[in-house]
Target: WSC domain-containing protein
Amino acid sequence: MAEESDIKKYDIIVDLDDAGDHGGNDYDDDDEEDDGGDDEDDDDDVTVLTVDGLVAGVKSMEMSLMTFMALDVIVKEEEEEEVEDDDDDDVAHAAIDLKESYIGCYRNISSTKTVASVGSVDECSQECTDENNSMIALKDGEECNCIERLDSVVASSQCDVICDNDDACGGSDSYSVYKSKPRVMHDAFLSVDNHQPEDIVMILPAFSTLEMCAHFCFETNHTFFQTIKNGSCSCFQEHQVTLGYVQEQICEKCTYDLNEVCECYHKNYQDKTTIFSTRSQYDFQRGVSTYSHCRNRNNGSYEITEKCPEGCDPGWRGDSCRERDCSSGGGGCPNGMGCIESMVNDDDYVECVCPPGKVRNKWYQCEVYRKNIALHKPPYYSSIWPLETSHGLFLISPVYLTDGIHNGYFISHIFDSMPAWMAVDLLNLYCVGFIRAYGRLNAVLHIVGRMDRFVVRLNETLDTTSKNDLRTQTNLCGYGPEKAIQSGNPMVVLCEDFTIFSQFVIIQQSDERLHEGVTSLAELEVFEAGCDLLNGRCKNQTCVEVKNGDRRVISCVEVYSTTTANTNFSATAANRNFFATANASAYITYSTSSELFKIELNNLWFLLVLLVLPVIFAISFFNKKKKVADKAGELSSKYSGNNDLESATD
Model:
C-alpha cells in the first residue's frame, strides 16, 4: 500500500450508468496491483468503478441505476497530477475578442485582484479566469485588475496608454474596461413573495439572457430589475418590500447557451421573485442599444425588432435602429452629453461623453469626478452592537459604515439615547460638499422611518469617548429627506456651507427621534465641495477653488466686474468630434486685498500732503510778495509822471 503522504481522498458523485460505460465491472488483479492494491483485499466482496481514469475500490452495496452515490476514492497523488496535467492540456484559453469585449474608459473601479504587470488584455483576462466577476480593467499600460464594480465613465481618448502588444490598456489615472468572459453570477439583491410593480417593461427576444435584462434596465436609468417573467424584463426605481429572503445565490445556465446565465435565485427560494440591482456591477459599450429605437413604436414599447418600417428615431440607425448615429439628434445622448466616435484597438466605437473635466456617473449624469473620501476610513460610534452580530437578514458590525458595500444587509447600528451618533474620521481636513447615505433593508416602514430627516454634522475634532450632547459643539451640514429611502438608493445631503473645514462627519437621528438611539446605516459616502456645485454656496459672490495637495479649499470672494463665459458643447457630423471652447475674463478683488489697498492709499495721500503743502505755501507767499512789489512800482511810476507833466506845463 502507498503511504498516507502519497495519497489523497476524494468524494466523487458517480452515475452508475456512466460507470458501466467506463468499464466499472471490467477489472482484473493486474490493474489492482498496478494501482497499489493489497492482495489481502482479494477475499473481500469488492466492486471497483473506473471514473474518468481514476480507479477506486469500495465494498459492494445495493445501488439503483438512477441513484448517485458518494464513493471514497483513494488514488496516488502522482496519478492525480498526471490527470490534472492532461486536463490542462485539453483546455486552451480562448483569446479575448477585443472588439466585442471592449466596454469603455473609467476613472473608478473596485478590484478583487490586482496584478502589477501584464503585457496584453488577453494576459489580464487569463489572470482573472478564476474570479466570479466577468470584467477586467487595465491601467497605465500594464496594471491588471479583476473588477466587480465600476463607475465614472470618460471618453476613450483618456485611456491613451498601450500595453506591450499595442492593446488599449488605460491611462495614467483611468482604466480600459473589457468583458473577459460570460457572467456567472448576478447582483442579486433580495428574494420576495410578489413580483414588484414595474416602471418600464421590455419584451425580450427568444434567446435572451439575464444580463440582457440588466443592461436594458441600466440603460433606461433604473436601479432594479427582477426575475424574467413570461419573456418580459421589468425595471423599477424603488422596491416595495414587505417580506424578503436572502441566502446563497444560485445561478442556472441557459438551456440554449450553456455559457450564459438565464436565472438566478437565493437558495431554497427559487419559486420567489428575485430583485437585482443595476447600478454597480453592470455596463456595456453604449454604441449599440439594448432595444430598437423605431420611429413611432407602439405605445412606447421596448423590444428588439429586425426592421423598423417607419425608420429610426433621431440619433439611431441600422435595420433594427439600435446603432447610435452621431450625425443626427445628437446620437440620442442625454442632455449635457456629446456624441463622439472613438478609435480603440483599431476599431470604431460611438460614445456619449460628458464635457471635459466631468465624468458620467452611474445615474447617467455628468459631474466633476470625486472620490469617496470616507471609503475605508475609520468609523466611530457612541455605542455599538456586539461585533458580527447576525440579526435576521442583517449582519451588524462597526466596519460596515465605510466598507463600500451598500446593499442594506451589512449595517452599522447604535443603541444609546445620548449622545447617539455615528461618525467617520476622514484623517484630514476637508471642505465637505455632500454625503450619500444608504439605509438598511427593512420591510417594516416605521423602522425605515427612524432615519427620517436625519442630521449630518461636521467638525474638525471629535472626542469619541465623550458622552456629552455634541449638537451644540459641532457645525451643521444639513438634513436628510423628510422620508427616509429604502436601501438600494442613496439619500443625498448637500452641506449648507462649503467653506467649513472638517475632519469628522457625524450622523444622528433628527432631534425629535434622537432619544430612540437606533441610528443605523449600510454605508456613508463623503465627497468634497467644489465650485461646480451651486457656485460653491457663494450666492452672489464668486467661488474660488484652490487645490491644496489632494484637497480642495473653497472661498467666496467679491466680484467688481462681470465675468463672461461661453461654452460650446456640440458634436459635428463632419468629423464626429467633440468641441468645447471657453473664453472668460474676470477681474476679481478680494475683500482683504481691497482693505489693504485703501490703507496704502490713505498713507500715500498723507505723504503727498506733507510734501506738497510746504511748496504750495511757498509759492503762495512769493506770489503775494511779487504782487506787493508790482503794486509799489506801479504807484511810483504814476507819481513820477505827474511831476514831469507839471514841469512841462510850467
